[in-house]
Amino acid sequence: MTFTPYSGDRYWDYPEIVSWCYDLAKALPEWISIKELGRTANDNPIVLIIIGKDPDHTPMFWLDAGTHASEWTGVMAAIFSLSAWGETLHTPEGQSWFSNNSIAVLPCISPDGYQHLREGGHFVRSSLRPPLSGTERIGLDAQDITGDGHIRWMRWKHPAGPYCLDPNAAMGLRKRTLHDDPENAFFLSMEGVFLEWDGASWKQAALKHGIDLNRNFPVHWKPFSMFGMDAGMYPLSESESRIATEAITQLPQVCAALSNHTYTGALLTQPYHPDPDLGDVDIQLMEELAEQSVSGTDYRVIKVYPDFAYDPKKRIIGVWADFLSSNLGIPAYTLELWNPFSWAGIEMTDPASFFGHPDPKIIAAMMTKACQEECKEWEMITHPQLGSVEVGGFTYLTTIRNPPEQLLREECRKGLQIANNIRSALPKITIQTETTALENGWYTLSIILENHGFLSTTSTLRAEQLQLAKSPTLTIVPNQGPSPTTQRMDVLEGWGTGLYKQNPIYASIGGRSCRGIGSWVVQKGKYTISWDAGRAGSGTVEVLVS
After folding, report:
1. What is the pLDDT of residues 178-208, one digit of tens each?
2. 177 is in which domain, residue-wise?
3. How would residue 325 be classed by pLDDT, with cut points 50, 70 and 90?
4. pLDDT(501) > 80
5. Does one domain contain both 482 and 527?
6. Residue 304 lies in a domain
7. 133 and 158 in contact (C-beta within 8 Å)?
8. Phi, psi (rounded to 5 degrees) for 539
9. β-bridge mates for residue 261, sequence order
10. 518 contact partners, CB below 8 Å, separation of at least 6
11. End of a domain among 388, 423, 458?
């Protein structure tokens, strides 16, 4: 059986994604497995795909997407990467790499929300979790009242409106000034109807589905509210976040991770706070790897603190990538695919500030570009509560939040390139054996382990501090005679650990070695050497001493 490669030509619905993933696994069963991790409230399966000849004994790279329902590009970039890796398994290079390494892909963490938006539903941040018990939903609720499969903008004329007609502005509206004629004033909202309406008040209803899964993970969690979204009742209160957490914690070989999101065109890295859990060495290591990983793309590296924090005085809580790095010691990044700012001809230097305090000129430029791509002319309709209103505007989900479909392939390629760069940083163990003759039929048998990878055998110092990644061991098992004996080594350093401070004027090889040795005095015979380098993998080698 063969699979049909995904070319990045269009967005898929979730059932098509799942079906394709199963076809991929069936086409390459000796290399790829698929597992259903659980089911959502809407009975959608959350699946994990693992690529590799021996994933239980080789270093692993983790890729996920779909934490946020509207970020379709991340999901399709994960599928694009899976497809490309599947195709490489038909080449000697691909088979060699996947014989010594593995990749785990969770393509969509929040499938209920993803599919809801694919079907034209109202905005949801992540899943379809009902509102918290104390939430009062009174006011305008976004709905597709025209039945065209999209929730667009709605406007109606009123002298108290904060917008004014302007034929030169995007969608024909701009912010109102003191000098504008009230007769030209409008209210602007998302298309929808009023809930629990009293017949007079015009206000926005709280989000129906406001849970943000990327604030629900157990790292510096506390109650949270922003833009109508919340972090759940407690850490891992949501089934989707629990499923993702349980999946990765059952894969002790994960050495590095990438989580696909949109939008900004940037790779986000540590620290997340002025007092981070990670030490300077790990933070610098992650920044160095991030800079090398975006090489060849037009993406940049952004430190979450202070450059991507909406409020530098408040810690960003419950983030998946921060949880992986701070609690598990895994170098983990958030990839913000798609840069609608540059698409609109804008050089965005401070995206976090923009999200918190939007610049009207930037908003106008983005809306103008979006309207040039796809825009429905204002259409007068009869609203069930307001009477005459107009509905129209561009499609937000495939202009601002995600690229138009004709630009999707290029974003998928960037996602694949960055994922490939990060996976190339995994630790890489090589083995040498040396035998030296002594007297009276005795020999010294030495086994040297070397790490040729960017990352150390524990990935980070944080993993060592948390005792989540062990140092390498060597165990000798003679075919006959004494019982097995084990020797423990120091952690094998990666060449990237101290890269940020390398200075050829004051050259240094660092305080830890990339090489370790175990030696035994033995007699002639056949010996099995088992090596276990923790996250860097494990294996055996047969040695004949003669």
Report:
1. 999 999 999 999 999 999 999 999 999 988 9
2. 141-205+364-398
3. very high
4. no
5. yes
6. yes
7. no
8. 180, -170
9. 336
10. 446, 447, 449, 474, 476, 487, 489
11. 423
Query: Quick one: CA torsion of 517, 522, 523, 528, rounded to 10 degrees?
Result: -60
- 65 and 51 share a domain? yes
Query: Does residue 132 sit within a domain?
Result: no
List strand residue ranges (DSSP E) for 85-242, in order: 102-106, 139-142, 153-157, 163-165, 173-175, 185-190, 192-195, 225-226, 229-230
Residues 192 and 96 occupy one common structural domain: no
Same structural domain, 51 and 157: no
Give every CB contact of residue 510 below 8 A, 6+ residues apart in sequence: 493, 497, 498
| pLDDT value at 341 more than 70 | yes
Across the range 40-61, mean pLDDT stands at 98
Averaged pLDDT of the chain? 94
Cβ contacts of residue 22 below 8 Å, gap of 6+?
Answer: 34
Q: Are 525 and 478 in contact (CB under 8 A)?
A: yes
Residue 51 and residue 176 in one domain: no
Report CA-CA distances (Å) from 379 to 156, 242, 258. 11, 45, 43
Instruction: Output DSSP code: residue 107.
Output: -
Does residue 369 sit in the same domain as residue 330?
Answer: no
Please report the beta strands in 266-383, taking only residues with DSSP state E, as ranges in sequence order: 266-269, 300-303, 332-337, 375-383
Q: Which two tokens stand for residue 507?
A: 């050259």
pLDDT, mean of residues 154-166: 96
d(CA 321, CA 290): 13
Q: Is it the case that residue 483 has pLDDT exceeding 90?
A: no
Would you state the structure tokens that stand for residue 371, as one six-digit string? 């309207």
Q: Are residues 526 and 483 in the same domain?
A: yes
Alpha carbon of 354 to those of 204, 319, 346: distances in Å? 22, 20, 12
The two counts, helices (H) then strands (E), for the chain are 13, 25
More confident residue, 503 or 431: 431
pLDDT tens-digit profile of 354-402?
Answer: 887 888 889 999 999 999 998 999 999 999 999 999 999 999 999 999 9
Pair 19, 98 in one domain: yes
Nearest to 309, CA basis, from 277, 353, 267, 342? 353
The two three-digit tokens of residue 517, written as one number: 């040795």
C-alpha to C-alpha distance for 72 and 513, rounded to whole angstroms: 43
Q: Is residue 241 part of a domain?
A: no
**Tell me, what amino acid is at 545?**
V
Contacts of 25 (CB under 8 A, 6+ apart): 32, 33, 34, 49
Q: What SS3 class is residue 525?
A: strand
